[in-house]
Specification:
single chain, alpha+beta, five-stranded mixed beta sheet, 5 helices, 5 strands, 25% strand
Length: 119
């Protein structure tokens, strides 16, 4: 299992333990395919369903959202030193999916990053 899987798994555990996240994600049932494009490619699928998050390694045929970035940008986002929206604007992160879902993903991701990043 790769680094991306373990980092996303930590986020999923925080999400499932966070009542604010669970409330915000309730009813937002999506499959999000994360692809890390580097020397070694990693793929994970994060599924949100009924306010719960699960994660699996690998691909899924028809995800609702696709997020692709390099390992350096992924690390910065997880550490909180790079906002996902800033990474997107700089071209370090590419995201495909309905705009409403991308906005929702960004807003719930902020909740998790605030909890993981020390002030």
């Amino acid at each position: 299992m790769g680094k991306v899987y373990f980092e996303l798994k930590k986020l999923a555990e925080k999400a499932n333990a966070n009542p604010v996240f669970r409330e915000k994600a309730m009813g937002w049932n999506k499959m999000i395919h994360f692809r890390i494009i580097d020397d070694i490619e990693e793929s994970c699928v994060v599924t949100t369903k009924n306010g719960e998050v699960s994660i699996e390694e690998g691909d899924v045929p028809n995800p609702d959202i696709i997020v692709a970035t390099d390992m350096g940008s992924f690390d910065e986002i997880i550490k909180g030193s790079l906002k996902p929206s800033s990474a997107f604007l700089r071209g370090c992160l590419k995201a495909e999916g309905p705009i409403f879902d991308l906005i929702k993903l960004n807003s719930i991701f902020k909740i998790l990053l605030r909890e993981l990043t020390p002030l």
